[in-house]
Amino acid sequence: xxxxxxxxxxxxxxxxxxxxxxxxxxxxxxxxxxxxxxxxxxxxxxxxxxxxxxxxxxxxxxxxxxxxxxxxxxxxxxxxxxxxxxxxxxxxxxxxxxxxxxxxxxxxxxxxxxxxxxxxxxxxxxxxxxxxxxxxxxxxxxxxxxxxxxxxxxxxxxxxxxxxxxxxxxxxxxxxxxxxxxxxxxxxxxxxxxxxxxxxxxxxxxxxxxxxxxxxxxxxxxxxxxxxxxxxxxxxxxxxxxxxxxxxxxxxxxxxxxxxxxxxxxxxxxxxxxxxxxxxxxxxxxxxxxxxxxxxxxxxxxxxxxxxxxxxxxxxxxxxxxxxxxxxxxxxxxxxxxxxxxxxxxxxxxxxxxxxxxxxxxxxxxxxxxxxxxxxxxxxxx
Length: 382
Hints:
Rossmann fold, Homoserine O-succinyltransferase, AB_hydrolase_1, Rna Polymerase Sigma Factor, Chain: A
């Protein structure tokens, strides 16, 4: 056990579990999954009324390990600063469920797991998914856990899109929706970023049409480039300037294409570490799900009509320095909710880092979440 887990605000050492979903899952692409598995972590305790459960929806590169430590590990879950005893998502008051989405690469059924029909990794044969498919899968998970209604569903970025889809598809099963640094659909610019990232992977000679597992290789060059591109968009110009400027790592230019600037070193490190933990086919699948998300499409392109049946109360949070999912996109969500007559609170958090600020322990941000979720907890305890 590492020393860090002695922190009284940590959920401590946690162990994931794989939950099998035997109910058939029809997918929007027209295919059917007869069975799938989801990797899940839970924190806190479900109360007797089963009314205090919160679902955490992860972003593109996230997974089920949101808080605490795995045995022997030094790095906590990706949202550890927000989930735990006394933290904004207080595990002394809530039962928190975090999963690796269907199609993920951290234990849930996806391209890197075995296709039972072939005995080989699914690879490119795994179906393309949508945010709606994920939400339907999560609803089946809730059934398996005996949770009829979430006290809240919470997510940032792509996770926020899942939150919105929950309120549209299962309005009776969600009391509060917390949508953070998200958008009602991707802009053309964001789709373009995703396409460049996908082409970097698809054109890697080691990709082998998505069957690289059979060749014992990884399309590391393409995946590294995809992550480097994505990471640039998650940071603000001011944050990159403050962190790196245009500083050389050495005293004078060496007039070659090796790493010379601090920012080059940083991006290559981020790219390589991503290759070590993420699957290329999953990256393709998840960026495509981002591109497809547009709940207004089924309602004559009227987002307010999409939210018409939603019964949850909403908290929508944006960050001032986020240019990938800018505050203007959050205000589109808020306007549609107001036009639909839904109850919504909106907050703009002053920030510096960019899109990644939704993962940071910004005091005003945490105070906002803590205050809102205190009200949610009182409802659960009533």
